[in-house]
Amino acid sequence: MPKLHTNQPFERLATRTHLTMTSVKNDDELEMNWAAEEVAVDSGDSGVEVADEDDDNDVAEEEKPQPSKRKAEENVVQLQAKKPKQQKSMKGLQNMKQEELFKLVNDVYMKFYGNDLTPIEIANGLTESHFTVIPQFGKHTLDSFTRFLRALCPEWKFLFKGKGIKDKCSPIILIMCSSALRAVEVGKLIRACRAIASFKCHVAKLFGKHLKLEEQVQNLKRFHPIAIGTPGRIKTLLEMKALSLECTTHVVIDMHRDSKNMSILELKDTSKDTIDCIRDAFLPQLTASKLSIALY
């Protein structure tokens, strides 16, 4: 018994030591296990985060157009911008009837003065009978211009001699062009025409390019069977009484279209001057049946 008593503290101490070591071991194992669990969770979270970033990039790449596709779209836009607009198909003047030619001019006339016209002015305004049509003439081209003038005025051989009218400052045919360049072009063609040139036909140049107004006033004092010019200069000469329509039988409005596909009745610089000439100078002669308008 005393021996057992003597060894009890040692056993208790051994027991305590064993428990302590066991406790330390268990704590170490728990700590290791906890660390392992944390690593597993962290790696798992990291994997999820990477996956999310990949998904975002995939979405961004889908929404963002590829460089090659964007370049192709830009090329298409550039080609569409460079591609000229398709012009509206227009009925040729040679195929128009008298009422159609009248409407073509009268629409522009009413655009400028329709709201200011009195009932009397409307009644005495433009009518279909004021326009001349040459049936079955064919397509209007620059080369056929002189042929058109001869068909328009069958008595030109007699009238171009100027008997009894050489001091009237009035041409037989007055041609209105949209630009000085076009007037020069048509004038050269007329002077080159053998039939007209044989009558020593003088053509009055009534436009502002390199020609002074004073010189034109002096030139008009000599008989010119044909006068050709721009609406602005013709309007000025008519207002100055330097140009007369007393002997004029036809006014030809050249409907040639420029590089922008605009005619004399559509261009801002010429449309109003043309209508002003019709309203202030041509209309009285038209009403008296001394004058006719032709569109070429």
UniProtKB/TrEMBL annotation:
Against Pfam families, the record matches this protein to:
CMS1
Give Gene Ontology CC terms: 90S preribosome; nucleus
Q: Which superkingdom?
A: Eukaryota
| GO terms for biological process, alphabetical | proteolysis
Enumerate the residue ranges of region (Disordered).
40-75
Q: Per UniProt, which keywords does this protein have?
A: Hydrolase, Protease
**Keyword Metal-binding part of the UniProt annotation:** no
Task: Indicate, by first and last residue, each region the UniProt record lists as having compositional bias (Acidic residues).
Answer: 50-61
Q: Which organism is it from?
A: Thraustotheca clavata
Q: Name one GO molecular function term.
A: peptidase activity
> What is the name attached to this protein's record?
Ubiquitin-specific protease
Please verify whether the record's keywords include Metal-binding: no
InterPro entries referenced in this protein's UniProt entry, alphabetically: Cms1 (IPR032704), P-loop_NTPase (IPR027417)
Compositionally biased spans, kind Basic and acidic residues: 62-74
